[in-house]
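yo

u said u wanted the structure for the complex thing, so here. seqs first:
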Amino acid sequence: MSTKSPLVNWIGLWTIVRREWSRLMRVPIQAFLAPWISALLFIFIFGFVVGSRISHIGGHRYLEFVLPGILMMNIVNAAFLQSSSQVYFSRFLRYVEEALVAPLSYAEMIAGVIAVVIARSVITALGILAIAAVFGATSIDGVAEFVFWIVSVAMVFGLLGIVIGLWANNFEQLTILNIFFITPLSFVGGVFNTLSMLPPWLRWLAYANPFFYFINGIRHAMIGFSEAPQALGIAVALVLAAGMSIVVWRLYAIGYGLRE
Amino acid sequence: MTPALSISHLRKVYRRGTVGIEDLSLEVAPGDFFGFLGPNGAGKTTAIHCITGIANPTAGRIEVFGVDAVGHYRDARRLIGLSPQEFNVDSFANARDIVDWMGGYFGMTAAQRRLRVDMLLEKFDLVSHDRKRFRELSGGLKRRVMLARAMINDPALLILDEPTAGVDVELRRDLWRYLQELNADGKTIFLTSHYLEEVERLCRNIAIIAGGRIVRQGPTEEFVREPGGLEAAYLRATALEAHRVSAPAQ
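structre next:
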């Protein structure tokens, strides 16, 4: 074997992916079935039962209006839970040391985590789209835009999950961000309502909430309905993804939570 | 000749201020079988963690066959195999996967891994246990998996941190024989152990660490020839350090 490392250790990177995938496949109900059942309940109750009593929004049925938000909430959850648990458990059981003693760069380690995050998010999204199709609510206006939102949001929350996975020292800390930040902000980010339904004094909160841009972006990709400039939403997603990438790379480089 | 391992003024201070290694310098020649001894908490595992990238050195320089283990860590890692003191594995994974994944991390192709994993599982008598989850294996079998994993990349420098702790006499003797074969084939072996009989039998050179610094270093024969043999020499060296630390400054 050569002692000089290749520019990119592709096999090492792929090993991180297939290894984590094998771990994920030990809990398929938790990883995939749970968000699909949760989405099914949201679609049925809010979209189908409640929605049938709500007038059209921007020419769309209420079910079609809420579906992108439900989809986005589940992508955010899937991405965050995947990376935070992957990193946390590898630290908790100490098998992160296997990667640390191997010729893997920090970028490869991070890319391996994010690749699984994106795969899990995409599968979660496809399942929800299939469920929504049963209710006749699946439509995608712009495929490229739709893919952009799934991948970029999965990246942002996958990277955020890595930070929490590195920081957490117990299971409670692992869930803190989800309880106090992700779930509340996603609910007030326009999953179930338009901006015009909010009292004026509360609208500033929506504009300051990145979830609003993510939900608005995927809603535009799916049904063409938008309440904010698309370029602004895309810029928010890209800046957050780039910023989080730099933060995570730096944490790996200094060994935060990884090395003694 | 470039040393297999060169450590110069290594210092490690943990985040909470605990000094793991005070000032450590040593060299291991290529092809050597090197024993690294010391009492619990002396800094053996900390030094190994600094060499292998599990810990960040605070100061000093570490080179593996002339490659800077911090600045060019990826190149340095390719030369090292580590069998750690504690089981640092996904305990729900099976033995075959644990060894195979490590090969993947080292960039080995599927074909290379298959051959190497089969050979190592056979060598360590793990073939009939290869699909069992790690947590279901006995202590001795777990230790064998750690060794097979350490050997997957055919490392030039094999670092073994108490590899025979908790294993039965048969495996210990099998392992000694295997390590001697490896060493005869030119592999450099860096061994920590609390079994002085093991060190005396296997190692050509010894360094004793106490209080985070090397207190004595030399050929094994030199220690063995002293009155009371290696054990007495070891106790004298570590007791001197304990006395130095506890004595009031003059």
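The longest helix of chain B spans residues 229-246. The longest strand of chain B covers residues 19-28.
cya
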